[in-house]
Amino acid sequence: MNDLEQGAYARQLVGDALATAEAERTTSPEAFTRRVLEELEQAGVVSNTYTAYHRSHGLEVHGYGTGETPGGLDLFVTEFRQSPLEDRLTKAQAESRFKRLLAFLRRCQNGLRQHIDESSDVYDMCDAVEKALTEAPQIRLFLLSNCVSTSAAPPPVDFDGIPVIHEIWDLPRLHRQETSGTLSEPIAVTFDPPLPCLSPPSTEADHSVALTVLPGDTLADLYTKHGTRLLELNVRSFLQTRGSVNRGIRESLLDSPGRFLAYNNGITATASQVEFVEGTDGQHLGISKIHGLQIVNGGQTTASLHHAKKRDRADLSHVRVQMKLTVVPPERLMEIVPKISEYSNTQNKVTLVDFSSNHEFHVDVQRITRSLWAPAADGSGQETHWFYERARGQYADELAQLTAAGQKRFRTLWLTRQKFTKADLAKYALSWDQLPHLVSRGAQKNFAEFMIRLREHPVRVDTLYCQRVIAKAILFKTADQVARAHGAGSYKSAVTTYMVARLSLAVGKRLDLGEIWRRQQVSDALAAALDDLCPRVMASVTHPLRGSHIGEWAKQSACWEAVSRVQWSLDAELEAELLDAPVEDTLLNEDEGADVDGTTAMEDVEGVSEAEWAAIEEWSKVTRSLLPSQRQLVQVVGWRLRAGEPISETQAMRVLHVRSEAMRLGFTMRE
After folding, report:
1. Of 146, 228, 430, 491, which is most buried, counting CB atoms within 10 Å of its CB?
2. pTM of the model
3. Residue 191, SS3 per DSSP
């Protein structure tokens, strides 16, 4: 790892935490904790996380998570320092932090919540921990730090019969997570005794295949330990037992475990490296270790084994599962895995291409936003870009390749606050689409839902679409600031998405997103409306009609039904700003293909006369109605067309949007 890159990352962490803490009127450790938990949740390491700080004699905790599986429990403690490069996190300090988390567990077990104010988020945390302890299959304790740890995490311990796993996420590990570009840290599994296998010689240089059979207990335990991280290249949420396939899996596990191998299709997995036990002739006899294990098909089989063992107490000792294991170099993973997933037999199949960073939707959004100049919002005249991080770590990777001077200029044009990820895009979109209960279920689940909806109703990704996405981002970020100002605390994320959804419902999606894009901020009337709406939404979200846990209540459709009924009317000033028709995404027709934004756009440009392009150019110079970058684009395209020079597909799409924008602003072509 490059020390300079790690040093820059460390300074960025401190700067972001201090700035966020000042803006949100909280502590820098809490701001740091929220940032790390968001990253780990997007990576699938944790889920359903909440920040809540509590400290007393001998104990300290900064947050908790309830995990994907029933009874799953994660606890987090933070060690944040403003000089992380000079300090080190020692073994004694790490062990002390973990002991404080264990003390908190014991106090919760002994009724700590009875001594906590019921209206506080700490009470919710104590209540959730107390309930989880009655059925937790395991407990994970996380130490989050921006320092460099001098030791590995302590070995597992036992808490009243429940296995307790320790994890240290220090500066180097967080840096790897941020810049790796992969979904999360690779999973390594050791098999003792080795798994017997059949590994024929490969005729292809970029992959090899091995066939083996896994014990059912082993596969169930892998899911217990790693959860959905094991299925990141599948990204299929477990469907409980609603589908006939899952019921069949469960029934065969309970009634005919010895026949499971015959009845089930098995799993298809990938690995970055496999260690084999070899015979005297060099032939592969068994698999001793798998690096970078991912199940790309058979996620339901894997999760069903786990649930049968934990929920039904099923005996899996006689269960065997066949596995086809393809060894793929990491650099070829995103190229080969989609084909493996596409051509494999699966139950309730959802292919990787629907969820991958390489999905054409995300590629198109990145391509367009990279060349899209955002209007100057501060009066400086400096146009900027919004950075769409299609693959995690792209922003940091771009910075790492530049000199110090280049990094300064990059940050001027690509502001950190204007960076957004795939998970962020899904959050903005589903909040606007009035699905805040799905957004509240966490980044990973919400993103999967977004991609399922996108597959069912593919949208046309063009300049207008990307501008609207950024307008939704500005709206969401503004709502988030309002929620912070109203003291939403650890439930700010839920209050924000519900506020945006309630606003979208009230205005019938008729907000002028184009105007928000042009101003790069919401209007005064809209800001005032959000400020008036926030306490009403917050009161509904933070007072559950079902159950007592606010975080769980926010995930239910009943919560959205309650918020949608909140009495609130539009101010006349905001009403005057609304469009006549709702803003909806343009869908791709069945007969439209991937070339709709490229080849078709170029044909449309060629269909506009040279005289009209010249007239738009002249009109824009006189009226100054278009942005400088838009005026320049019309000038360049017009010159190329007159000279018979070709233009790119991106230029064609952008200039068509500029033409539409000019017409909207009053341009007319005179005869």
Report:
1. 146
2. 0.62
3. strand
